[in-house]
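Obj: model holo form, ligand = flavin-adenine dinucleotide.
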Amino acid sequence: MYPAVFEYLKPSSISEAITLLQQHGEDAKLLAGGQSLVPMMKLRIARPRYLIDIHRISDLNYIREQAGQIRCGAMTRHVQIEESELIRDRVPMLCEAASAIGDAQVRNRGTLGGGLVEADPSGDYGAVVLALNAQMKCISPRGERVIPAADFFTFAYTTALESDEILTEVIFPFPDSNSAGVYLKLERVAGDFAIAGAAVQIGLGQNGVCSTVGVGVTGAATIPQKAVSVESLLQGKKITPQLIDEAGRLIQEGAEPIEDTRGSASYKKKALSAILRRAIAESLRRAEAKRSS
Ligand SMILES: Cc1cc2nc3c(=O)[nH]c(=O)nc-3n(C[C@H](O)[C@H](O)[C@H](O)COP(=O)(O)OP(=O)(O)OC[C@H]3O[C@@H](n4cnc5c(N)ncnc54)[C@H](O)[C@@H]3O)c2cc1C
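Output (holo structure tokens):
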């Protein structure tokens, strides 16, 4: 099927894109990699009258290290994240999430910003930004604001962004140097969205107890969740196999997954528990290896 008729606009700067968004209001949509929006337009679920293509705005595509943070422009493609030495070195779980997205074609076109704003309940980046306490920088005619990851996702396919706001940058604070993280995903077949996914970053103190922890999960509800109960359980304790099992039980009890073609709610709860336990164990293994190296 073909999309409904639309006018194609191609701003070359962020300020031009903001003006266009302001001018056309609810009738306009930003086009990033088009990997979610274009299929929706073809199915006529989305029918924007104006399509504002932001892919030529070079100010939105970068990966840089600055003041103890990694800053990624919203138009950074999944493949750029997957292949970034800087990200692999500093926040490997972000590379792991990017490389788990779809297939090569999707990763070549799709963007970090598009993936986050699309807010698919089974998307991969949500868990990662929550585990790492990332921040979303946005701009609108009213100026700039920063939204913490914990406040960004409001409902399935819905975020805290206003209709005239552009996500410009995602800011990842460097995790503690004594910590290590991982993103693991359970999928039906390679390239599919997650049945369940878990991002876990664990720091170990001198005595081997968990000194810092960040946990985000996908597939537990309509939005990615910061697993605060699991973080509280692990914080300040020696992480044993029994504690990992307890974390799995906690997440399973609290989960309210959406039943869909990827599985029933009860199956997804068990899958989430299993993938979280695996992610905690792997993150711990990496943190211990780092400590003893
Ligand atoms: C076959 C297939 C498999 C996939 N598998 C996965 C997967 O396993 N895991 C996963 O996480 N994702 C998956 N995706 C989705 C993929 O990651 C998309 O790239 C992503 O969801 C949307 O990114 P995009 O850049 O293509 O955005 P677009 O499709 O261009 O836009 C998506 C939405 O975000 C808005 N938007 C985009 N950028 C901005 C911005 N900077 N500011 C404000 N609004 C903005 C658009 O207006 C639109 O509403 C898959 C997609 C396909 C087609």
